[in-house]
Design brief:
CATH topology of the largest domain in chain B: Rna Polymerase Sigma Factor, Chain: A
Largest sheet of chain A: none
Order of helices and strands of chain B: HHHHHHHHHH
Largest sheet of chain B: none
CATH superfamily of the largest domain in chain B: RNA polymerase sigma factor, region 2, helix turn helix motif
Strand content of chain B: under 5%
Shape of chain B: globular
Number of helices of chain A: 10
Oligomer: heterodimer
Number of strands of chain B: 0
CATH architecture of the largest domain in chain B: Orthogonal Bundle
Distance between the termini of chain A: 162 Å
Distance between the termini of chain B: 58 Å
Structural class of chain A: mainly alpha
Number of strands of chain A: 0
Helix content of chain A: 55-70%
Order of helices and strands of chain A: HHHHHHHHHH
Largest interface: A-B, 33 and 46 residues
Number of domains of chain B: 2
Strand content of chain A: under 5%
CATH class of the largest domain in chain B: Mainly Alpha
Number of helices of chain B: 10
Helix content of chain B: over 70%
Chain lengths: ~190, ~220
Amino acid sequence: MRIADVLFRQGHLSDETLTAVLLDGDRPAHLNRCDRCSGRLRELGRWLDDLRSEALAAADEAFPPERLALQQAQILRRLEQLDEPSRVIAFPAHVAAAPRTDTERRVAPAWVGVAAAAGLVMGLIGGQVWATLEPQRPAPPAVQADQPETMTPPGQPVNAELLDYDFERHVPDALVFFDEITPALTQGQYAAR
Amino acid sequence: MTEQDQTPVSAREADARVAIDIRAFQAEGRHDAARERYGELVARYQRRAVRIAYHYLRNAADADEAVQDAFIKAYMHIGTFREDLPFEVWFTRILINGCLDRIKARRRRERWLAPPMLDAAGVERDPAEYVPSRGPSPEDLVLADERHNRLMDAVAELPERQRMVFMLSHIDGRTSREVSAMTGLNESTVRVHLFRAIRRLRGLLVAPTVKGTVAGRSKRANR
C-alpha cells in the first residue's frame, strides 16, 4: 500500500492503484479485508468492461460483415491494379510514321520558301532587263489644234456667236432643214436688245 | 503434407510464414498467388484494424480508407517486414501512422472549410454509415446511438497519445509491451498514459457535472 493512500484516504486504495490492480493483476492484501475498496474495484472493472463493449459495438455497427467483405474485395482489387504492368497506349505519331508508297511524294517545307524567294528575285531582275531592251514607244498625240483655245469659265454669259459657229460646223446635212425652221437663240437675244 | 505442416504453430509464426511466402511469390512474379496469400492476412486483421481506425478517426468513411491504405502499404513494403516482430505490431504501426496523417490533413482542411452539416442531435452524419434494417427497436437504437456518441466524444477529448494508448491497451486488448512496440513509446510511458486516460474518461462519463474539474486536473496531468 502506498503512503499516500494511508495518509490521505484512511488506508483505502486510490483509483490509480485500483486501475493498476486491474491492468497488472497484482492484488494488494488490503482488498481482501476492505469491502469498500473491493467494491470499488468491482465497480471499476465493470465500468471498464462496459466501456470496452460499448466501443467495440460502436465500431462493429459502423462496419458490419457486409461492409468488411466489400472492403476486403476493394483491397484485393487495388492490389491487383498495383501488380498489373501499366499498359502503354500507342501514340498517333506511330501511325503517321508508316512507310510511304512510291506514288507518294513529299516536298520539304524549306524548299517551298527558297523557291518563292528565288522566283521573286528573278522576276525583279527580268523586269529591269526587259525595260531597258524594249524600244521607245511614240509619245501620245498632242491636244487637238482646232479646239477653241478659250474656254468659258463657269458662271460667265455664253458667247452666242461661238455657239452658233459650233452648231453649224457639227450639224449633219439631214438636220439643216430643221435648223432653218427653228428660231435661233441669237435672234431672240438681238430682238430683246 | 510434411511433419512441420502438421505441427500447430502460433499466430505469430503463421504470419511470418505467410509474409515469407508472399515475398517469394513476388520475387517469382507470381502476383496472383501472392495476393491470395495476402488475403489471409487481410481477413485475419481487418476487423481489428477498422476498430482502431474508427475510434481514432471517428468517421467510418475515413476509417475505411485508412485501413485500405494501410493494407496496401503493408503489401508493397512486405519486403521490409522482419519476422522477429509480430506482423500485427508492424501493421498496426503503419495503420496508426496513416491515421495520424489523416488527422493532420483533416485539421489543415478544416481551417479552410465551412463547418460540417449536423443533424438535430448535433452529430455529423456519415452517408456511409450502415443502418441495419432489422434488429433493435428504434428507441434502443436511439439510446445506443446516444451512448456511443457520448463515449466517442469522451474518447475524442483525450489527448492524442492517451487516446492511442487507451484504444490499443483497453479496446484492442494489447499488453503494455505490445503497445510500446506499436507506438514507439516506453512501457512505463504507456502505463502512465493509460492511467491518465482512464481517470479522465471516468471524469467525463461517470460524473459529467464535474467535467470542468476533471479537465483541469487532466490538463495538469498532461504537462
